[in-house]
Design a protein that fits this description.
This protein has 218 residues and is α/β, with parallel strands linked by helices. It contains seven helices and six strands; from the N terminus they run E-H-E-H-E-H-E-H-H-H-H-E-E. Strand 2, helix 2 and strand 3 form a beta-alpha-beta unit.
Length: 218
């Protein structure tokens, strides 16, 4: 597959089970054409996505075993953790995911969620409805999870059936719960406000230019 693309192909993996097979698995990916490999140094948990701390020793071991670059993923909670991680593992880079959602200068969560939906609309079939619901929940939760209305939002989100439903929920009810005027079409009052639905609100590139969330679709 990697040879059929004009851009490099990478792979992101977790620890294999048993973990001793991780290096062998990564070496097979390298042999198949992976340009670099990112290791989230935890095993898959049926209960929690982050069961315990990431074991960076396996990142260090993987770096010694591969010729392609290795990216370390896990245990980054602040800026100081990044050089510490790189020094300890010898990795070529660090991947940071949801920790970024705690950043003080992050844009408004509804803006981020709406742009995410624009990306999903731009690339149909990339994310299923349950996947979009999960991502939207996390995007809103990190800044708004302690508000009284958040549980109502979770319930309403779980009832959505389409991308358009999620877009309308964010633009109307969530904005009103936050004490703000709805954007676009208000489902409760059947009135139209300034703003556009996801299918027509993007610019010619399908984005509004506020933040690039293209890596969050997977």
């Amino acid at each position: 597959m990697s040879h059929s693309f004009t851009v490099p192909t990478s792979a992101k993996i977790r620890l294999a089970q048993p973990v001793e097979r991780t290096v062998d698995f990564a070496q097979r990916l390298e042999a198949c054409g992976a340009a670099w490999i990112t290791l989230h140094a935890r095993t898959v948990s049926a209960r929690r996505r982050r069961q315990g701390a990431a074991d960076l020793d396996y990142v260090k071991s993987l770096k010694k075993s591969l010729r392609v670059p290795v990216i370390s993923n896990g245990n980054v909670r602040n800026w100081a953790n990044i050089p510490e991680n790189l020094e300890y593992t010898g990795a070529d880079g660090v991947m940071v995911g949801e920790t970024l959602l705690f950043a003080n200068n992050l844009p408004d969560p509804v803006d981020i969620a709406l742009e995410y939906l624009q990306l999903c609309n731009l690339f149909p079939g990339t994310a299923s409805v349950p996947t979009m619901q999960t991502h939207i929940k996390h995007l809103v939760e990190f800044q708004c999870g302690r508000h009284r209305w958040f549980q109502k939002f979770r319930s309403a989100l779980s009832s959505t059936k389409s991308l358009e439903d999620m877009d309308a929920l964010l633009r109307t009810k969530v904005e009103r719960w936050r004490g703000r005027p709805p954007r676009g079409w208000d489902l409760d009052t059947n009135n139209e406000y300034n703003g556009a639905v996801v299918s027509s609100g993007a610019n010619e590139n399908g984005l509004d230019g506020s933040i690039d969330l293209s890596l969050m679709l997977g």
